[in-house]
Design a protein that fits this description.
- It is an enzyme of class 2 (transferase).
- With 334 residues, this protein is α+β, with helices and mostly antiparallel strands.
- It has two domains: 173 residues, Roll (T-fold), CATH 3.10.520.10; 109 residues, T-fold (Orthogonal Bundle), CATH 1.10.3980.
- The protein is 29% helix and 31% strand.
- The chain contains eight helices and 20 strands.
- The strands form six sheets. It has an eight-stranded antiparallel sheet. The protein has a three-stranded antiparallel sheet with strand order 3-7-6, with helices on one face. It has a three-stranded antiparallel sheet with strand order 10-11-20.
- Strand 15 and strand 16 form a beta hairpin.
- The radius of gyration is 20 Å and the shape is globular.
Amino acid sequence: MAIYEHAFQSMASPIRIRLDFPGNHRREYAEAATEIWDMAKGEFASVVKALSRFDPASELSRLNRSPGQWVAVSPLLREALQKAWEAYEYTGGVFDPRILRSLEALGYTGAPVVPLSTGGRRDGTDSVRGVSTSFDSDGEKFPEPWADPAPWVEFDGDRVRIEAPLDLGGLGKSLAVDRVREGILSHPAARQMKGFLVNAGGDLYAWGTREDGEHWRVGIEDPTAPATILAALDLPLSTAVCTSSIARRRWIHDGRPVHHLIDPATGQPAESPYLSVTCAYPDPITAEIITKVLFIRPAQSLRIWPWPDYIWWVTTDVRLLATPSGQRWVTWSR
């Protein structure tokens, strides 16, 4: 079997890439695999350099230290900011990267940011809670899509101006997976492949089939025991699969359990009925955004937006729920 696998560490996650070619090993397969490994490591390194909030020298860290000022940025950071803004608009503010100060206040610290007294909105209000709220007919609190009259990011060619420090963590990882996906598909060797898998922890992209013609199979982990698989999914088509989970990023702060999935309406960890949400979608960035908003505000999200057919939830009592189409992909569950 002509299977080539490589692993490295980036974005606090194990990155694994597998390439499956037909027939036996050949020199051109091995050479193509080496080129793809180098490309993948370069793409992840570029995303870290542009978007990491933990590296004081990253572009995002420098931008976060200059709220309210025009700053020249790379095409990569501009793309990420554009996608974040589009997601904010589409979800009515449920997806909102202006949660960095909330994460810092909860002890999930990264590179230093401008203190609240010198940053934030130009009207002097706290930008962490910059999205105003109202109540729907069921009494659920949620952000109004157009309640904030000024955008939190502005674009002018290669310059941007942000209102408050941002966290682009999950979106950054899915963006890296997407760039690697595009890099593999544009490589001449892609025409010879049976399939490939790019796996970056909770975000992955599967294309084609395995070398033996079988579908790719991925697991949904038990958020209460991350080394344990709760269910296995059979992927009959090329797709991204992304998960938002509190399995690895939860801790005790001031005597209470907290996690990193922040509700922008409150500035606090979302009080969700789920421990994790997984979504399959054609592109990783959209899949990542969907999992975030379905975790943070599930009732509102399912009522308002046309979400994909393939979604899986793990409830707080560790039960697996799925959409009807998603259930058909479950080949095994505990």
